[in-house]
Amino acid sequence: MSASVSARPKPAYRLAALATRPFLRLLFRVRVRGVESVPDGGLVLAANHLSGWDVVALAYPLPSRWLRHMAKPQLFRRRLLGPLVRFLGAFPSRGGAGSSVDIAAGLARAGHAVVIMPEGARRRSGRVHQPHTGAARTALAAGVPLVPAALRGTDQVRHLGRWEIAFGEPIPLDDLDAGDADAAGIATERLWDAIRELEAGLGQPAAAAFASRSKAT
User: Fold this and answer.
1) pLDDT of 82-135, one tens digit each?
2) Distance between CA 46 and CA 135 in Å, rounded?
3) Counted domains in the chain
4) What residue spans of 71-182 are helical by DSSP H?
5) C-alpha closest to that of 161 among 114, 217, 189, 203
6) How far is it, in rounded angstroms, from Cα 79 to Cα 75?
7) What CA–CA distance (Å, rounded) separates 42 from 105?
8) Which residue would you say has higher pLDDT here, 159 or 10?
């Protein structure tokens, strides 16, 4: 059995993902762009971080993939919430030996799609956090694609704001050596530039967003 097959979600997860898609589409009028840019097999998916609904939004266009994401350790100790977050693909964050990056890289090498938000924390009052290098370090350590994404509207769930999800082409990493101390920083700069460019195109008609990206390049 190949890694990509073993990393597929359990039937119950896939059934739940497919069953909730019509409700999400109806409630949030979901608009998706660039999903064809997401390759098969192991990868790191990195996006801006607006709310706790971000992982749900990223999973919406990828119902056949089991997105694995980091969560606070205390969530796993809760009687009802723990099994749920595990079912949804979360793994506990850790420091030191067996760190979160090591765990995430292991999952990515095994064929999983690992979600890491470079901002680390949700934005508050429009504040944008400086990106961390965890997503880049994971992709470099695992030797898998680093895929940028951007989200809009997931922080407006109470108002049923439209969800927009955009995926970009994998970030070039072939010229970087995972053992180089500067590699993660360079990769993070490239990643963050791509995320901000995708984010700038959200809220625009598809033609306008394409023109904006073309002008930027």
Assistant:
1) 888 888 888 887 765 458 899 999 999 999 999 999 987 777 766 667 899 999
2) 7
3) 1
4) 73-76, 81-87, 100-109, 134-142
5) 203
6) 9
7) 9
8) 159
- For the whole model, what pTM was predicted? 0.83
The CATH number covering residue 173 comes to 3.40.1130.10
- Residue 201 to residue 197: CA distance in whole angstroms: 7
Is pLDDT at 214 greater than 60 in this prediction? Answer: no
Note down the domain range covering 185: 3-216
**Sheet of 113-115, strand order:** 31-33, 164-167, 146-152, 43-47, 113-115, 67-71, 90-92
**Coil vs helix vs strand at 47:** strand
Q: What is the pLDDT of residue 192?
A: 96
